[in-house]
Amino acid sequence: MKLKSLVLAMVAGAALLAQGAGAATVNRTAPVVTTDDGLGGFNAHFGDTFAQSTTGSTFSDVFTFDVGTSFDAAASLTSAYLNTPQTKDLLITGLSLYRYDPVTKAVLGTAIAGIDLTGSGADAPDSWALSGFGLTSGAYAVQVNGEVRGVGGGAFGADLTISPVPEPQTWGMLLAGLGVLTTLAWRRRQPARVRADVRRMRRR
Predict the structure, then answer these.
(1) What CATH code is assigned to 20-169?
(2) CA distances from 166 to 36, 134, 143, 174, 187 (A)
(3) pLDDT tens per residue across span 48-76
(4) 154, 82, 155, 92: which is closest to 129 by C-alpha?
(5) Residue 122, CA atoms < 13 Å, CB-side half-sphere
(6) How far is Cα 34 from Cα 169, in angstroms, rounded to an integer?
(7) Which residues of the chain have pLDDT under 70?
(8) How far apart are CA 123 and CA 89, in angstroms?
(9) Domain regions of the chain by residue span
(10) For a designed S-S bond to 49, which of 57, 58, 155, 174 qualifies (C-beta 3.0 to 4.6 A apart)?
(11) Helix (H) or strand (E) holding 177
């Protein structure tokens, strides 16, 4: 009886050790690979894959990029995974965008939090989105947080779109140009209206 208890205790201890070893936090940082959109902005696609060896771990993936002008940003994320019985193998718990100091890695200002758009149901694939407007130039990061719950692991993929915001002087030049065009169009119409009025008067 004592031997059986000892064996059970050893098995339970080994299971706890294995669970503790798997309960680490996986931190990864990588620059995003950008594709020029031809309009002064860029697009990027990025993601990560988790194997069975990371089961029980939480993760924090950071994807970095630099922008040299004021910009608007939008990002979306979806996940894919196998379903271990009664377990959603991969769970995304957060998506955020923030500016940071490239030297100290400290977050500058307030992070923009993503919105969880995941559908209802225990096994719904994760879906997140975020957007930011009028952001200043600098070094930025998109951070994805989550948990690897089942042995199936899983993966997530994300898209990022960056669009430059015109400078205030650009807006002023655009409005001035529209004003000139409006004036020219009005002047062109004026002689035609005068001629039409003269014709009407002659007919009377």
Answers:
(1) 2.60.120.380
(2) 17, 10, 27, 10, 30
(3) 999 989 999 999 999 999 999 999 999 99
(4) 92
(5) 9
(6) 28
(7) 1-23, 167-204
(8) 9
(9) 20-169
(10) 155
(11) helix 168-203
